[in-house]
Design brief:
With about 350 residues, this protein is an alpha/beta fold. The protein contains twelve helices and eleven strands.
Length: about 350
């Protein structure tokens, strides 16, 4: 077996998820043509924040490019990359990297494959332009509607003088760029041959929408996977489920980080591949993927066991809102109907 072949063997697998410990550009150049059906990834779109030097500063909580927010209400908040400090050279490097990445990705994609890339309003235009030049077809954006602690601050060292000023708007959304490899023929032809060319509907009567409401990642998930850019499983599962229109194929995350995309794919029943070059994040993903994938299923299994044993308490398994509405209905008011 050659060294190149040996390096491409899975470094870790769990269920239908496979994780490789290597550089994504090298991995993509060796990937067979037309083998990937969708991409969902949250890349290091500032690039410099994931350099070895900046990662050392992050892990020692000394900042650098990373902003280490103060504790809020007794809770320690997650670090955030400071995109306002990126220089013109950094932005040019960002453009070159995503153009090169897009060109390396194209051959591995089947026609009609969706490519969903998390970004930030300050740099998304650069990433989008580079991917379009690489040959991918722009299909819009998916908005993660979430209140963050990014932006909204008063001028530094002059917050009392300019108490009524926000230097930047408080971020209440996150862009996820949506691209696609061009179809072969009509959408129905592509769906029949490649199983791609659209987005999976949440239900027969509801189309896939470009806005997904999301909460910030819960502390319980961050304890399972302490990665600075961790996204919540509820959001990722909705997104990952949608990228395979017929529920068939392989989802790739070439910047796997904690493995949260692979965990989401595992939870919805999809095969997935992840690539991560940072040894610490690779080790984190090995332990986090099984635990993140199991979120939600443990409670459901416990409730099913209690039902079989006849020990479920009245109202168990319903939301607090559902119990309130049920009580209102019992007092002569009609229960709310969820659309």
């Amino acid at each position: 077996m050659s060294r190149a072949t040996a390096d491409r063997r899975p470094s870790f697998s769990y269920g239908r998820a496979v994780l490789h410990h290597c550089d994504c550009l090298e991995w993509l150049r060796g990937e067979p043509a037309s083998s990937i059906h969708a991409v969902v990834t949250d890349p290091p779109y500032g690039l410099s924040e994931y350099s070895p030097e900046q990662q050392r500063k992050l892990r020692s909580r000394r900042g650098g490019v990373w902003r280490i927010p103060p504790a809020f209400d007794g809770a320690e908040r997650s670090p955030l990359p400071r995109f306002t400090v990126l220089t013109a050279e950094d932005l040019a490097a960002l453009d070159r990297f995503f153009f090169e990445w897009g060109r390396a990705l194209m051959p591995a994609l089947v026609p009609g494959a969706n490519v969903v890339v998390a970004s930030h309003p300050l740099v998304s235009f650069i990433v989008a332009g580079a991917l379009a030049r690489a040959g991918l077809e722009r299909r819009g954006e998916i908005v993660r509607l979430v209140m963050t602690m990014r932006g909204g601050d008063r001028p530094k060292a002059a917050h009392e003088e300019f108490a009524g000023v926000s230097v930047m708007p408080r971020s209440m959304w996150e862009p996820w760029l949506l691209f696609r490899k061009r179809l072969q023929g009509r959408a129905q032809d592509n769906l029949r041959r490649w199983k791609t060319g659209g987005l999976r509907r949440p239900s027969d009567d509801k189309p896939f929408g470009d806005v997904i409401r999301s909460a910030p990642t819960h502390k319980s998930e961050r304890e399972l996977a302490p990665h600075p850019s961790l996204k919540p499983q509820r959001f990722l599962r909705a997104l990952v489920r949608g990228v395979l229109p017929l529920g068939e194929g392989v989802v790739l995350d070439p910047f796997a980080g904690s493995g949260s995309t692979l965990a989401a794919a595992e939870a919805v029943g999809y095969a997935s591949i992840g690539v991560e070059r940072d040894p610490r994040y690779f080790a984190l993903a090995r332990s986090a993927i099984p635990r993140l994938a199991a979120l939600g299923s443990e409670r459901s299994e416990r409730e099913r066991s209690e039902r079989r044993a006849g020990t479920v308490r009245p109202g168990r398994g319903r939301s607090e809102r559902g119990r309130r509405e049920g009580g209102r209905a019992g007092r002569g008011r009609a229960p709310a109907v969820q659309s």
